[in-house]
Every structure is written in C-alpha cells, then in structure tokens.
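Title: Prediction job returns without error message
Component: structure pipeline
Severity: low
Priority: P3
Assignee: unassigned

Description:
Job completed but the reporter wants confirmation the result is attached to the right record. Sequence as submitted:
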Amino acid sequence: MSGAVHTPTPGPWEAGHECISGTVAVWAGDAMVAQVGGRRITADQSRIDARLIASAPELLEALEEAIETSDRLCAERGWVRVAEAEETLAKMRAAIARAKGETQ
C-alpha cells in the first residue's frame, strides 16, 4: 500500500447467506465487500467470521466515540487516567489505526 488512507465502503454491512461452496458474503447494500470461507474453513466458522466482518463499521465508530468521550471528559474535568485505562486506550487506538490502514 502506498500509505494513502482510503474510506471504507459505507455501512451498514450485513453477512449474507451461505453459498453452496460454504462461503458467506458480506454486503453493503448491493455491493459485496467481502467473501468469507474456503476449503479449510467450516460453514459455521465462515458465518461467524462474516458476522464479525459485517460489524466492523459499527465497531470502528464505537471505538472512535469511546476515545473521543474519554479524552473530552478528562480534559473538561481534569481527570487523570490510571495506567490500565491508558493501556486499553492504546490498544483501541492501535486497532483503529490498523483498520484505517495507518499501520502495517
């Protein structure tokens, strides 16, 4: 990747029905954003993975809102975060960066 940050396909995303091949497609309206499954993955696992992928836009939005709320409240109220909270927020920021293609 060239380092450019791209906007994902707008949600909501939905896990579709299992195909004859055992794969499951993830859809954003009439656009397929992913196809999950393969020879070494069971149909049940494909459905589980497709649901997780389909929830990605909402999970990303929730993480971003949680960080923004935490940062805002700490700034407004003069709160200091404990180390465990800082570690959790660092994991959240890393997950967001990975989802946005900002890290390798």
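Comment from assignee: result matches the submitted record. The chain has a mean pLDDT of 90.
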